[in-house]
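Internal ticket #5521
Category: modeling
Description: The requester needs a full-assembly model to guide mutagenesis choices. All entity lines are attached below as received. Residue total reported by intake: 923.
Assigned to: D.W.
Attached entities:
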Amino acid sequence: MGEAEVKPKKAGPVQCSICSQRRAALKRPKTLEQICRECFYAVFEEEIHRVVVDNQLFKPGERIAIGASGGKDSTVLAYVLSELNRRHNYGLDLFLLSVDEGITGYRDDSLETVKRNEIQYGLPLKVVSYKDLYGWTMDEIVKMIGLKNNCTFCGVFRRQALDRGAAMLKVDKLATGHNADDIAETVLLNILRGDIARLSRCTSIITGEDGPIPRCKPFKYTYEKEIVMYAYFKRLDYFSTECIYSPNAYRGFAREFIKDLERIRPRAILDIIRSGEKFRISTSAKMPEQGTCERCGYISSQKWCKACVLLEGLNRGLPKLGIGRTRGLNNGLECDTKQSNGVKNIQSKQCGTLDF
Amino acid sequence: MQLTLEFGGGLELLCESVKIHSVNVDPQVGEEKLTMKDLLSWVRANLIKERPEMFMKGDSVRPGVLVLVNDCDWELSGQLDTTLEEKDVIVFISTLHGG
Amino acid sequence: MACGAGNCQSGCFRDDDDSVVTEKKKLTNRTLSSGSDIDLPNHHNLCLKCKVNETLASSGTVSVDGDIGRFCFDCFRGNLFGKFKLAVTSNAMISPTDNVLVAFSGGPSSRVALQFVHEMQHKAQKNFDASRDRSLPVFGVGVAFVDESAVSRIPSDEFDKAIQDMKSIVSNLAPPDKAFHVVPIESVYSSNGRDRLEELLNAVKDVTGKEDLLQHLRMLSLQKNAYENGYTKLLLGSCTSRIACHVISATVKGQGYSLPADIQYVDARWEIPVVLPLRDCLAQELNMLCRLDGLKTMEVLNSPHSGINGLVASFVTLLQEENPSRECTIVRTAGKLTPFHFNQIPESDDSNVHLASRRRQKKFNLKPNESVPPESYCPICNSPLSKSDHINLSSLGSDQTNADIFGATCCPSCQFQILPKEPVSMEHFYSLLPQQFVVQAKDRSFSMQRQLREQIQDFLLSDSEDGT
């Protein structure tokens, strides 16, 4: 974890506005302060600590799974949470939980990163695979259904796989690496799609408290830029290749819009989240009734959960089963996939990681 | 002028998956100094092998690509107007890949 | 109204239930007998609605895009006017005793608004002339143009010509006659308006903030004009596309709480209630109507948006190109947010209000529990403030200046993008504000305390009632 050698720029280095001693290394998007690396580490970690404490994300003695993809967000989350757990005596048992979708050349590589994280941070790792849970790898699914709708399968399966993995680990909560940019994007997407139910809950820092495993987002107010800067300065080991089955998935209009906004007004990202928190949404708005899937016992508003419907389709050789305009789990997602002309999409991550 | 360029966060995929490039870039004829603006157009012409729109937008980097000059956020050194010097290390990191 | 899906050919736009059923049967039969080929000969050249006239697309006189091209001119115009009329009647926007001021910018949306209001008034006049008892008066119409030459750089000859054009548009409308008001934006000041306005806008550093402040001043000047000239409603041409942009930009500026206040058919938080009868019409449709109907517009007066507003406008345009129903979806989503108590025409004791318009009035999406007025509004943008944004005036120290107190009563968005950060510039800015803003702020800080007292009193009263 050696830090890169620093060669100060001759043309008037900017002083850190916090310590007034060291050379500033970045401009914080949240506050526009120009601060040095050491002060950045301190405020970055302290802010996340405040979020954890103020929102009572964890209780002492809890077992917490960190959803780990090997990407920047979850890698930084694992690092910071284990650090804060030690520093502030949270008293948490932390675990890494990864999903192996079975995508050769993508997930196998990123899983190597997670396995290194396991050793680097000393956190036990649990990997649940689609193959074990469903009998199918994504490679096999794509071989059968092609590149259309594959993200629907992957998204539905991942959501459930994380819950099942969390249950196997007997954890109390699942922490995910969704950052402020992700949440701002989700607020916009839910407006663009007319999804008022999701709009009302997408800014909640803890979700699914009535479900099997509550999920929380410690990076809710953390800018993506700071996460990447932190990972870079700390030389954290993360994986950053796009999924081979949805290349260009990150070329979304909404994400690009967020980044354009950030350039002219960095505070816009937090303002969008703030708007999302303050929307006047009538609590009487109908929420789908939660039952359990008759087949696998997973929470479902229908007779069978979405994963079982999709799986049934695969096993019977009718992969279109469960794909379409049904008012189900993934309503809206499919509509947008259909409308896209294959060049650009309104959302950045089609693969369902934003599905919260 | 001897410079080290580093591409990360997935941007290396745009330059044949090579992360670190040692390059020699000189100021344009008649110009004394080399700025980030000059470097970007040089990179686009010489290093980016595919999908240049993933790296640039207009004459700057695409929003969401972080730039560090000698490990310092280029927002502190004047962004496109940053003057480069011999042996400078310039890092480009995409924040847009993966999660 | 068509079903919105670009490729829907099921005929579901029909009003007549029977015909929908037959249509569906026909489709099913055809599907069964001839497989996937369900195209009728000539089907594509006939208007979707009347099935008699040629579609706009096939008549080839103008290039039309999207769904519009699938209708004939009469049905297209009828549809659009129908949306306008439904909005007016179902929200009781205009009653026979009203005097309506139409805000006319010279752009296509307000041009259509003017045209439609005029047609409605014209028809009311005909009915009046034909009726025996003449008991129902005909509502009055006036037109106001906000003259922003004090702050924009439009060549004066172009500007004068535009004013002349607008004058002749208004005077060429059939009777009843309509007054045309040119309202200088600096009229929000009682004196020295031009200079103070210029200085005020110069004190705002953020380009988006400057643009939004100008927008608030525009509303203030319209309100003032409407009030002084005895108008009872202010009618704006805000269309779906415009409102969709507002939904996104308000979200981006952190105004999620107050957003539903701005996007309803009726906004009666102002002295003169504001109505938006074109809320369900797309900019694209209104532009098309202006072209087809030969309604003249004055584009020279409309400056493009900048800053955040500009970014939002191009984002929404991009989305609309990708999916022609996107703007509608955005407005529909925001429409599901809970509106405020002032988003309906206040019940009046006026017995002149015609029963027919009452009966037709549907209270869209207004929850009965929405009767408690929010305690406070931002003195600049007039947004209702959420609980957490209310300031506790007693918590401000006694050494606070008026400017400080004013700043503290503003919403977070105005504080960020409009108010100067340094105390000295803030004092200067405060001194330049139109009296209206300052008075509002003062009124509000007092009314907050008064309201609190009233609430306590109400509580005591109801308590004693229970006791007896």
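Resolution: model delivered.
Comment from assignee: Chain C has three domains: 18-61, 73-371, 387-454.
Ticket closed.
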